[in-house]
Design a protein that fits this description.
Helices cover 71% and strands 0% of the residues. The protein is mostly helical and 277 residues long. The protein folds into two domains: 53 residues, no CATH class; 213 residues, Orthogonal Bundle (MetI-like fold), CATH 1.10.3720.10. Helix 4 packs across helix 8. It is globular.
């Protein structure tokens, strides 16, 4: 018992130290957002702001030409729409792979998984040419529409979770006259909340932090997202670290809030999505 207690204590100490190390950049970001310019470049570095000031946040939210709130609204619009598309399309595809029997299902699933190994940069130019031909450049369509055609990672997570649900549920529903749509909406979706929460968090994070997509497809400054807006703090002769850290802190808040809301389902979904092949 003593050896087990010592082993568990050692594991927790190592994990706590690793977690604290991972949080150091976040703590530095938040602390810098409350510092005056002279304190940011102080040596040795000051972890606690002295003096404490809100001027960086005021400047970020009120600076002419920056339009932080507009960038925030643009990012939220693109992220929510794309997240809805990812969840809706990936759920339908995952249901077909997990609960329906049809010829070539397993082979097509393998093909789906192989697409995860294809780097995004390989398809970047062909996809750009396609969207340019469709006239979608400088619109949000290239950032939102592809999400409604499914994502391999999210399909895999949902499919693996649905495989853990008993087949007797399908049989009982079929005996009551339920079709595929009823089986998906009335049985699979309510029971798949942990996996859906996991996909929602992943999709929100991916689209919220997306930099390459808006950089390629958006030309008008009024349509920029936060990922592009943060880059505007980098000037030709230097970087305004105080306002930039304030904007970065505000940018991180929605992700933190979403994770805290979906934390219980997120952890459960990650734990159960790989239990059964």
């Amino acid at each position: 018992m003593k050896l087990k207690l010592i082993r568990q204590t050692g594991i927790h100490v190592i994990l706590a130290a690793g977690g604290a190390l991972m949080l150091l950049p976040v703590i530095w970001m938040i602390a810098t957002s409350f510092k005056e310019p002279e304190s940011i470049y102080a040596f040795p570095p000051e972890w606690l702001p002295h003096p404490f000031t809100w001027s960086n946040y005021v400047e970020t939210l009120t600076r002419p030409g920056m339009a932080f709130l507009d960038f925030f609204r643009n990012s939220m619009t693109v992220t929510v729409l794309a997240m809805i598309g990812n969840i809706a399309s990936s759920t339908v595809v995952a249901f077909a792979f997990a609960r329906l029997r049809w010829r070539g299902r397993d082979a097509l699933f393998v093909v789906l998984l192989t697409t995860m190994m294809l780097p995004q940069h390989v398809t970047m130019i062909p996809v750009f040419v396609l969207f340019k031909y469709l006239g979608w450049i400088d619109t949000y369509k290239p950032l939102v529409v592809p999400a409604f055609f499914g994502a391999p990672l999210y399909i895999f997570i949902l499919r693996q979770f649905m495989l853990t649900l008993p087949r007797s549920l399908d049989e009982a529903a079929r005996l009551d006259g339920a079709g595929n749509f009823t089986l998906l909406t009335r049985i699979m979706l309510p029971l798949s909340k942990p996996a859906l929460a996991t996909v929602a968090v992943f999709a929100f994070r991916a689209h919220w932090n997306d930099f390459m997509g808006p950089l390629i497809y958006l030309n008008s400054s009024e349509k920029f997202t936060l990922a592009i807006g943060l880059h505007m703090f980098h000037g030709q002769y230097g970087t305004e670290w105080g306002p930039m850290m304030a904007a970065a802190t505000l940018t991180v808040l929605p992700m933190v809030i979403l994770f805290l809301i979906a934390q219980r389902y997120f952890i459960q979904g990650m734990a159960m999505s790989g239990l059964k092949e």
